[in-house]
Structures are given as C-alpha cells and as structure tokens.
Write a structure and sequence with these properties.
The chain is α/β, with parallel strands linked by helices and 117 residues long. It has 2 helices and 7 strands; from the N terminus they run βαβββαβββ.
C-alpha cells in the first residue's frame, strides 16, 4: 500500500488486526510490513512522497481508490467500536447493513463485515 508515512500506517494496521510488525529492523527506510505471524498473509507499506488520498465513493476527476481490504469479524458492532478507537474513520456512505466501510489514516477504504448476519 502506498503511504506518505508507511511506518505509521503499518502500526495502525498492526494494532487494528493484532498482526505483528514484520522485521522492522530489516525493512528499507521507506517501507514497513505486517503479517499474521503464521506466514499466511501480510501487508507491505511503501513510501510515496506524492501520495494523494483516494476519494470513495469514486468521484470523477478525483483520485480513485486503488484497492481496499475486507476483514471478517464475529461482532460487527464491537469491531466497529474497536476500529474507531484505533483511529479508523467511519465512511459517510454505508452501502450494506452487514458491512462497515472505514478509512485508514491515509484515506484508504477498508471494510469490516460480519459473515452470516
């Protein structure tokens, strides 16, 4: 993921997901990463000096999102409160009852969803 501050964004997702930072002493200065600790999945964050926050929902002529992450949770209300406490911002547009759309500190949209609710 592109970021103007990859280390800060990695800390945000590390706290949100409970995933450890991946070998911070071995990362290049403009990079940071987290993983599950089990080698199953990870996210790498890269410095982008000219980063422009995406706009979601998409707006013609504005920076569009390049990707978004979805995370399944067991209790959507509890997970929503937790995400907000850790610095996520709830999006104004919420298209589904069983999904919550948030923005991370750099404006990347991500979703929490409750399966089967």
């Amino acid at each position: 993921m592109d970021s103007p501050d990859p280390k800060a964004l990695a800390r945000f997702y590390s706290e949100l997901l409970g995933w450890p930072l991946w070998k911070p002493d071995e990362m290049d200065p403009g990079e940071a990463a987290i993983d599950t600790g089990e080698g199953v999945a990870g996210i790498t964050f890269h410095l982008k000096d000219d980063y422009v926050r995406p706009v979601w929902p998409n707006t013609p002529g504005e920076q569009q999102m390049m990707m978004h992450l979805d995370f399944e949770v067991s209790d959507l209300a509890e997970a929503t409160a937790y995400a907000l406490e850790h610095g996520a911002v709830l999006a104004d547009v919420q298209p589904q009852d069983d999904v919550r759309v948030f923005y991370d500190p750099d404006g990347h949209p991500f979703c929490l969803y409750a399966h089967g609710t």
